[in-house]
Design brief:
The complex is a heterodimer of chains A (about 260) and B (about 425). Chain A has about 260 residues and is α/β, with parallel strands linked by helices. Chain A is built from twelve helices and eight strands. In chain A, helix 6 links the parallel strand 3 and strand 4. The relative contact order of chain A is 0.14. Chain B is mostly helical and about 425 residues long. The radius of gyration of chain B is 28 Å and the shape is elongated. In chain B, helix 6 packs antiparallel against helix 7 and helix 7 runs antiparallel to helix 9. Chain B starts with a helix and ends in a 17-residue tail after the last helix. Classes of the chains: A alpha/beta (about 260), B mainly alpha (about 425). At the A-B interface, helix 2, helix 3, helix 4, helix 5 and helix 6 of A face helix 11, helix 14, helix 18, helix 19 and helix 20 of B. One iron/sulfur cluster binds next to helix 15 of chain B. The site of one iron/sulfur cluster has 15 residues of chain B, from helix 15.
Chain lengths: ~260, ~425
């Protein structure tokens, strides 16, 4: 990937006396995880294409503390939150977009009680906004007729009731959207939430991501679409476990739209 | 002697209601062992939930078969119990079918007629419920957390309903004057022929027996509730009112932690002044929960309300993949422990005496707690707005903040966040490297 991306930081913007329209919260996975970094780059490609005046915190961003909170470490969570809020408020940030439903949920719902009040939106909601306002147009027919199934991230769907935005965006690609038996409010977790991503699973007879991948395979998809970097990893592993990686791709909605 | 039946009736009634009231008082005392929660927000949404979820059973019907049958039993049971009002008045004053002397025959007939139809529908539904539990063995009714008492409890209540409904219909069928009235005996007219040929005296005896058994049965039922998952008949309403009204993904921020974090982050804060301000009743003895007293009153109410239906567990990703975690068991354990603590208080003149046990460890294991993905599927599935996840989270908080007992990998992850602001051991300065890769 050599394509040059325009990624201004808040510090640079500030130095020029400018305020971006929106802050892109990259999140820890999006910053460091090799697979998630591709999602981050794809989303920035979309932002560049739509001429969105955005900025990132860059090295001033720190972990939201979400995963520490779900693990039970309220101290660490609040320390992280207070630190991040200080930076965000310092830059007078009003609007935040992120590709990570965990950061989305945490900043939107749990930061206000600690002094951080922002409008937080998920990248699928933002992409939908860009398309419907005409700022982003999908050129090709890359996905025309392709069977795509969408896996609802727990913290976007059940956690915050966002079920339609990702589906609306997918429909714009002219793909055939197929639903799994368990979807929207009854969607099955991918297995990564609640800090499970960072530890081995408890003894059982199956891995959660394998069960969820089986749900997806039932719809005979060509693409499994995700909206969360952790879900993406889990489903990718699941597809590999089922030895289907040559037929089925697991892609984030940002990646799908960047190539549409 | 002519008032003997009236007196016996009154004694039954007072004893039945009195014992029930005593248990209700105990229930309230036990719930108050938890800490208070402020639920003065979102009032209109709370009432809306009561109407839709509790009264309207909107979540029950997400599973159409059991939901539909449950609505019949619920509506039937509630409405038929209007009849109890008449029974009580008749019992105390020695009247017979007092309703007939108040209402026109046609209205009375219409009322009793609808009760009879409902009774029949309830009977059929209850039998289907029994078959689902005992013959078809639906997965959520045979889970390992539903052995012993909870399993019998589920069936006992079904037998209860069958007996009560049959008594009601027999009582009407053997009431000669009611049958002769030919209004309202929609169902019982088909039962009446079974008793044909019996003398008027025998018929009268059967009718009276059915009448007495019916009212005694209802009083027993009322008192059985406290010991059963059927408390939800009453508690579903307050429980739904106090249910979660913020997005499911939003977890509460611990206020006591906020106070300490502020102190640590603010270099100007006077370390000696602050605790005095917050010391009043803000700071709890411990962070998180290891026993029922550490939970909130809403969480304890949740435990008493749980219907043990297992809808939560049947949607739980951990449970579906063979892990030990079952959100239903979390609720049942909480109730069992709360009952144990209540009995301990009763036995020790109103004071809890340390029994060397607690909810964490003696009832719920660390293994169960760490299997949760915090996915909220259980919360979404619960037909009476119970939040098993909040209890799991409070116990994790205790494990991590009081005992440092997180799995090793999680400790590593947290150390990384502390040191370099990411769950992995990467350098903070490399956070933007993705842009040029
Ligand atoms: S939140 Fe936890 S207990 Fe509830 S369904 Fe999900 S994994 Fe199971
Ligand atoms: S918590 Fe709710 S869903 Fe789970 S068993 Fe109890 S009543 Fe049923």
């Amino acid at each position: 990937m050599s394509e040059q991306l325009k990624v201004p930081t808040m510090a640079e913007m500030m130095a020029e006396g400018k305020q971006p329209e929106i802050l892109f919260w990259v999140g820890s996975a999006g910053s460091y995880d090799d697979r998630a970094k591709k999602i981050t780059r794809a989303f920035v490609k979309i932002l560049n294409k739509a001429n969105v005046n955005f900025a990132v915190l860059g090295t001033e961003e720190s972990n939201t503390g979400d995963v520490a909170k779900r693990a039970g470490n309220e101290f660490l969570f609040q320390m992280q939150a207070v630190m991040n809020i200080e930076v965000l408020n310092g830059y007078e940030v009003k609007r935040i977009v992120t590709c990570d439903p965990h950061s989305y949920n945490c900043i939107k719902n749990e930061y206000p009680g600690l002094g951080g009040n922002y409008e937080v939106i998920h990248h699928t909601q933002f992409i939908k906004e860009l398309i419907s306002s005409g700022r982003l147009t999908l050129e090709g027919n890359t996905y025309k007729g392709k069977r795509i199934t969408f896996h609802d991230p727990c913290y976007l769907g059940r956690g915050n009731g966002v079920y339609d935005a990702p589906r609306d965006v997918l429909k714009k690609t002219n793909a055939t959207l197929v639903e799994m038996k368990r979807h929207k409010s009854t969607a099955l977790c991918c297995g990564a939430g609640g800090a499970q991503m960072f530890k081995d699973a408890e003894p059982g007879d199956k891995e959660v991501n394998v069960l969820r991948t089986e749900d997806a395979l039932e719809t005979q998809p060509q693409i499994i679409a995700t909206g969360c970097p952790y879900c993406n990893t889990m489903m990718t592993d699941g597809v590999k476990f089922k030895e289907k990686e040559s037929e089925i791709k697991v892609l984030d909605i940002a990646e799908l739209i960047a190539d549409a | 002697m002519e008032y003997l039946p009236n007196i016996i009736f009154a004694i039954f009634l007072i004893a039945g209601i009195g014992y029930f009231a005593k248990n209700v008082k105990k229930l309230i005392r036990n719930i108050k062992l938890g800490h208070k929660v402020d639920a003065s927000d979102h009032t209109s949404e709370r009432w809306k939930n009561v109407v839709n979820i509790a009264l309207g059973q909107s979540k029950m019907v997400k599973r159409p078969v059991s939901g539909f049958l449950h609505v019949i039993v619920y509506v039937g049971f509630v409405i038929i119990n209007i009849e109890v009002l008449e029974i009580i008045i008749d019992g105390i004053f020695g009247t017979h079918r007092i309703g007939l002397s108040i209402l026109p025959e046609s209205v009375y007939g219409f009322l009793i007629g609808s009760f009879e139809i409902l009774a029949l529908l309830v009977l059929v539904s209850v039998i289907i419920f029994w078959i689902r539990r005992n013959v078809i063995k639906i997965r959520r009714f045979i889970g390992s957390d539903l052995k012993g008492w909870p399993k019998s409890d589920g069936n006992i209540i079904l037998y209860f309903e069958v007996v009560l409904m049959i008594l009601f219909l027999v009582m009407n069928a053997t009431d000669t004057s009611f049958q002769n009235m030919e209004a309202g005996n929609v169902v019982s007219q088909f039962i009446a022929p079974w008793f044909e040929g019996l003398s008027a005296g025998t018929l009268f005896t059967i009718e009276r027996t059915a009448w007495w058994l019916h009212i005694v049965g209802i009083l027993v039922f009322l008192n059985y509730l406290y010991f059963s998952k059927h408390l939800h008949i009453l508690l579903a309403f307050p429980n739904v009112y106090y249910g979660k009204v913020v997005p499911k993904g939003k977890f509460n921020n611990l206020g006591a932690v906020t106070a300490e974090v502020k102190l640590m982050m603010d270099p100007d804060a006077d370390p000696y002044a602050a605790p005095a301000e917050t010391a009043e009743d803000e700071v709890p003895a411990k962070f998180g929960a290891s026993d029922v007293m550490d939970l909130s009153q809403v969480q304890l109410l949740n435990a008493y309300t749980c219907t043990e239906c297992g809808r939560c567990t049947s949607e739980c990703p951990a449970n579906l993949t063979g892990k030990k975690l079952s959100p239903r068991k979390i609720m049942m354990d909480t109730r069992d422990r709360l009952e144990e603590v209540g009995k301990n208080i009763d036995a020790n003149n109103g004071e809890f005496k340390d029994d060397g046990k607690q909810l964490l460890g003696d009832y719920i294991t660390n293994e169960e707690l760490w299997a949760c993905t915090t996915c909220n599927a259980c919360v979404e599935a619960c037909p009476v707005s119970i939040d098993p996840l909040s209890i799991i989270m409070d116990m994790r908080r205790y494990l991590v903040m009081e005992q440092s007992a997180a799995p090793m990998e999680l400790n590593n992850m947290m150390t990384n966040i502390e040191n370099n602001g990411a769950p992995w051991p990467y350098n903070q300065m490399d956070r933007l490297n993705w842009k040029d890769e």
